[in-house]
Amino acid sequence: MTLYPRSGLAWAMMLTIPFALGKVWGQDMPVPPSNAQVIQKVPQRADPVAGEKSDRGSNEPASDGYQGQGSASSLGAANGDYLLKSGDIIDMVIYREPDLSMRSKIGKDGLVQLPLLGEIKIGGLTVRNATSLIREKYNADYLVNPQVYLDISGYNASKFTIIGQVGRPGTYDCSGSESIGLLEAIGMAGGFTRIADRGHVIVKRRDGDTIKTMKINAKKLSDIGVDRFEIQPGDVIDVHESWY
Length: 244
Known about the structure:
The chain is an alpha+beta fold.
C-alpha cells in the first residue's frame, strides 16, 4: 500500500479518478475535447389542427406568403380614398388565405359577391372604408384578425358630356383612376371657341332623383391658375355663347 502525504492526497485522486472513469466494461470511453460545443435541437412548431378557427390573419410574419398576387401589403395602398361605384372591378386578397382571394365586379346596386359572406354593399364607400367593412365581417364569424387588401383592377368606363361653344362637342370618357377638372374636360373637347363665354359655364349633375345645376366662372379658374371644380361621371357641361 502506497502512502501519500496528506498534502498530496488530493493531487493523487485527481490523477487516478479520470483514468478509472475512462474504462467501462473494458472499453475506452471517448472524452469530449475541451472546446466541444453542446448543440440543442429546437422543436418545430406543429401545424394547426384541422377544423380550428384560422388565425392566419394575425400579425405573425409569414414564411409562405400568398403567391401569384405580389406583395399583399402593397395592394390598395394608392387607392384608399377612391370612391367605389358600380362597374368597378376589385381584387381582394386576404393574407395567407388564398382560397378566399377573388376578383369581382360591383353591380349596379353597389353589391359585390364575396366568399363565405355572400353579397356585401360597398358601392359608394371609399376603398379604405370598404376594406374595414369586409375585415369586420370576416373577423366576426370566420377569421381571426384578418388582413384584407382591396385593389382596383378596372374602373367603370364612365362618361361626361360637353356641349356649346367648344371645339369638339360630344361625350368623353372619364376613368375613375384620376379626377378630371373642368378646364381639363374643356381641353379634351378642343377648348373654348372664339365666341365662348368663359364666365358662364353650366354644369348639370344628377343627385339621386334630382338634377343639380351649377354655374361656374371658368375664366376665374383660369385666371387664378387653379382648377378647383372636379367633373364627375354623368355631368353635362354647357359652355354658353358670349353676347359681346
